[in-house]
User: What shape does this take?
Amino acid sequence: MTSVERLRARGLRATRPRVVVLDVLDAARADHEHLPVARVAERARAVLPTVSTQAVYDCLDALTGAGLARCIEPAGHPARYEARVGDNHHHLVCRGCGATVDVDCTTGHAPCLSPSDTAGFAVEEAEVVFWGRCPECRTPSTPPPAEREREEVR
Assistant: This one.
C-alpha cells in the first residue's frame, strides 16, 4: 500500500508534507533507524525543500495520532520517531552513543507485561526501554562519546 493510500485509509488528507514525512519514516524503518525530529526534517527537506520544522512536527503528530508512526522518548534523549507500529516491540538504547534498536517482546501479546495494579485502567500497551552499551561503545579502543564529539568538531 502506498503512503497516500495508508494516509487516506486512516482518515488523513494525503498532503505532500505528510507523504514525504511518512516516506522518510518508512525508509528509516528499512534501515532500523529511530529518527529525532531534526533528522526527519533534514531528510524531508531533501525531497521537499520548503517544508518547515513546524510542518514536520505537525505531520509527525498527525501520523502518530493516526497510528502510522510511533514516538519514543528515552530518558535524556530527544523524542524519536519510527514507522514500526501495531506490533509488540520495545527498544534497547545505548548509554554511550544513544543508538536505538528494536527488541521484540518474547512474553506474549500486547501489552506483554501486567502491572500489579491497573487502578481501573484498561491496559493496552507496555513500553519498555532496555539500557546498555552497544558493541562499539563497549570496545576499549573507542573513545567515550564526549571525547568522540570533540574529535568530530576539530
